[in-house]
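Tutorial handout. Part one gives the primary structure; part two gives the three-dimensional structure as tokens.
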Amino acid sequence: MFENDFFDLNSLNKINFKQSTVIFSAINGNEIKKNYVIKIKKLIEYLSNKNISNFILLSSISVYGNYNQSINENTPLNPINLYAKNCVIVEKTCKEIFIKNKINLSILRIANIIGYPKKNLGLIEKILLNNKKNLYSFSKTNLVRSYIFIDELIKLINKIVSKNFEFEIFNVCNSNYIFSFKKLIAILSKEKLINYKINYDKEKNNILKSMCEAKKIENHYKFKNNFIRDINKLSKNMKI
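Part two.
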């Protein structure tokens, strides 16, 4: 695992990339498009010349933006926020360079990841953490989200690595885990995992519905419906 500045190509020279699989999970949602395009292109071109065998890009279903129905891999992209726009930039750059150089490329458009600890807390983690200290408020809109637990995502990525796809794009979520905010609160309340009154604030979400169709990835990985078990496990890990 490389956790340093991967845009510092001199530091990358210390790594033997020959016939390796690179899993890229560090798309930046804070850097403006113009600067990011230049840096990403240099990095991808560098890797394409290092004789890697596979590149797996961890992108996001946020590239689709708002849709009132389920989204699949053929749904037109409509990125709304900067992170989603940068995801599209990286996807496009990877396709242009890796396919041209005959390097295997898999793009995983991943739904909301449930897990703890992590740098950017998701909706479920914030709801649970509010049991300790009421730090977070939530949108009044009944947002709909698709989810996948981190343990399941890791297993799925390992499966993709073993397949050596020449080029594929997959939406990645557990299709059993698509919940509105109200449904999520009802489940957590029934399991006695929350013990406070939800605070709401002004509207701040620009993606209202994100419902992922995962039929394509389900041809290669079988998801289980263990949400209650896994959410209780998460709560214990968070020491709620």
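Part three, for discussion. The domain at 9-237 is CATH 3.40.50.720 (Rossmann fold). Strands lie at 21-24, 54-60, 104-110, 112-114, 138-139, 144-149, 167-172, 178-180, 200-201.
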